[in-house]
Design a protein that fits this description.
Length: about 180
C-alpha cells in the first residue's frame, strides 16, 4: 500500500495534513508533545510519520497507538497469535532473556508462568494485554498504563491474578479492589 492509498483508506485529505520538512530527525519525536491529534480519532497522537503524496508533497501523519496498530498495513498472511508467541518465547529462552509479552489481541490464557495479567479495554473491548510473573512489576505497569493510556475515551484497566482464578486485584477507573 502506498502513502496515497493509506490516506484514502483512513479517509484523510492530504491537503489537511501539516506540511513536513524535507528531512525529519529522530522520526519526528519532538512532534509528539500532545498537541497534535490523531487523524483518525482525534485523540492525542502517540506516533507520527511522514507520507509523500503526489501533488501534496511531504505531510505529517499523526496517529494514536490504537489507530496506528489498526491502520498499519500487514504484509502476507497473518499467523495465529499462539504461533507468534511460541516463536517469541523460544527465541527469548534460547537467548536467555526474560520476556514480557504485551499484545493488542485477546489471548485465552496467561503466557507461560506469567501470573499477573493486565488488560486495557476501550468501549468494553480489550485492546491490549500484558502478563508479568511478579506482582511488583505488574503493579508498576498498571500505574504506567493509567498515565499513558487512561485518558483514552472509555478506557478501563484491570490487573488480575491468573493463579487465583482471574481474581481482579486492581481496576481503573473503578479504583483498587
Amino acid at each position: 500500500m502506498n502513502d496515497a492509498d493509506l490516506l484514502r483508506s483512513l479517509g484523510v485529505d492530504p491537503s489537511q495534513l501539516d506540511p513536513a520538512p524535507p528531512w525529519v530527525p529522530r522520526a519526528g519525536a519532538e512532534r509528539l508533545d500532545g498537541s497534535h491529534p490523531c487523524v483518525r480519532c482525534g485523540q492525542p497522537a502517540g506516533a507520527t510519520g511522514v507520507v509523500d503524496v503526489p501533488g501534496h508533497g511531504r505531510r505529517w501523519l499523526d496517529r494514536c497507538m490504537p489507530c496506528l496498530i489498526a491502520t498499519t498495513p500487514r504484509v502476507g498472511p497473518r499467523r495465529p497469535l499462539g504461533d507468534t508467541l511460541a516463536v517469541l518465547r523460544d527465541a527469548a529462552r534460547e537467548a536467555g532473556v526474560a520476556l514480557t509479552i504485551v499484545t493488542d489481541e485477546p489471548y485465552p490464557a496467561a503466557v507461560d508462568n506469567q501470573r499477573f495479567h493486565l488488560t486495557l479495554s476501550t468501549g468494553g473491548k480489550p485492546v491490549m494485554h500484558g502478563w508479568w510473573p511478579d506482582l511488583a512489576t505488574a503493579e508498576r505497569k498498571f500505574k504506567a498504563w493509567k498515565v499513558e493510556r487512561g485518558s483514552r475515551a472509555g478506557a478501563r484497566i484491570t490487573l488480575t491474578d491468573e493463579a487465583d482464578g482471574g481474581r481482579v486485584l486492581k481496576a481503573w477507573p473503578d479504583g483498587d479492589r
